[in-house]
Amino acid sequence: MAEQSVCFQLAERPRLFHCCTSAAASAHPNCYVKDDLKRVAAADFPAAGAKYYMLGTVLGLIRHAERGDLDATNPIQGQISDPVHKIVSQPDIWELRWRIRGNPYRLYYSEDLSKRPDFVGLSFVRKQIDGTPEEVRLRQNQDAAEAQDRYRYAEHFQWGHDTNNRRCEYCFGDSISDLV
Amino acid sequence: MASLNLEDLHTPEQYVRLAATLESDWLKLKHDLVQRRKQITDPAHLAAFLGITVQEVLDFEQYDYDPTQSQLNEYAMALGVRIRPDAHEFGNAEPILFNDNEHAADIAVSSIDPLVSQFNPLGNLVQND
């Protein structure tokens, strides 16, 4: 059976979903994920209300991923289903999915409950679905590879998370004013 | 007829928090429905009852699936539950996501305007009597 993300395993206490930065928190870095979110929002949701809705939809689902109560019904034997979204390994990169106004969006992230933070968001993209299945898969692999690069690059400064047990300014849901 | 300037109704941050809360309300409702299905029946039985495929049931139960209103009602009906919407205006005392974060900007919720009619997120899931 495929490995299941902890997003689908109920947490005793909400876990922490941090967003990877370009340098240590003390250096006032850029935040990759928040920059991605702002870029996607500006490109795909030019109307103010649409942008607010898109950003809120992303944050609302993240909160449930932290709680571990997202639903992903395991497939019955012989049925095709893909409730578990591990994309690549070493380092392991997972994805969370949204469909907003008919378009697919993806957050690539890592998860490791033995570390702090539990989750590290690495990139946010609109999934490109034009082209052949092979072309779509190739672009997904490129997106995942970029997420892996960010993970490895930022690992030595804890992906910009400067506290062990509480939210920092680069964790999801914090500093919403930076997004709008 | 007077028309509100929606940009003035709430701050951008407050709109984002409200959207996050609406998404959370939906995910909770969906989670409650899926949990009830798991308590009382299996996907194959539900699929047969509704005349749909097992795959359609499984798709419905994924967190990222965006069902139509009729799909939602069919699923709820089959499980013997009623979804009770409770639409009311969002106000100051409303619990809302991300309102207590350390670095979050302080948000002043706009005062209630009589022009705003009463709408609010999906409400309670109740089992039929």
Overview of this structure, please?
The complex is a heterodimer of chains A (180) and B (129). Chain A has one domain (6-179). Chain A contains three helices and five strands. Chain A has 180 residues and is α+β, with helices and mostly antiparallel strands. In chain A, strand 3 and strand 4 form a beta hairpin. Chain A has helices spanning 32-44, 48-67, 133-154; strands at residues 17-19, 86-88, 93-100, 103-111, 119-126. Chain B is mainly alpha-helical. Chain B has a single domain, classed as 434 Repressor (Amino-terminal Domain), CATH 1.10.260. Chain B has a two-stranded antiparallel ribbon. In chain B, helix 3 (43-50) packs across helix 4. The longest helix of chain B has 29 residues, at 12-40. Chain B is elongated, with a radius of gyration of 18 Å. Classes of the chains: A alpha+beta (180), B mainly alpha (129). The interface between A and B is large, with 38 and 40 residues. Chain B: It comes from Bifidobacterium eulemuris. Chain B: This is Helix-turn-helix transcriptional regulator.
Q: Keyphrases for this structure?
A:
heterodimer, A: 180 residues, 3 helices, globular, B: 129 residues, 434 Repressor (Amino-terminal Domain), two-stranded antiparallel ribbon, 2 strands
Tell me the layout of helices and strands.
The complex is a heterodimer of chains A (180) and B (129).
Chain A: E1 17-19, H1 32-44, H2 48-67, E2 86-88, E3 93-100, E4 103-111, E5 119-126, H3 133-154
Parallel strand pairs in A: 1-5
Antiparallel strand pairs in A: 2-3, 3-4, 4-5
Chain B: H1 6-9, H2 12-40, H3 43-50, H4 54-60, H5 69-78, E1 81-84, E2 124-127
Antiparallel strand pairs in B: 1-2
Helix pairs in contact in B: 3-4
Protein name (chain B): Helix-turn-helix transcriptional regulator
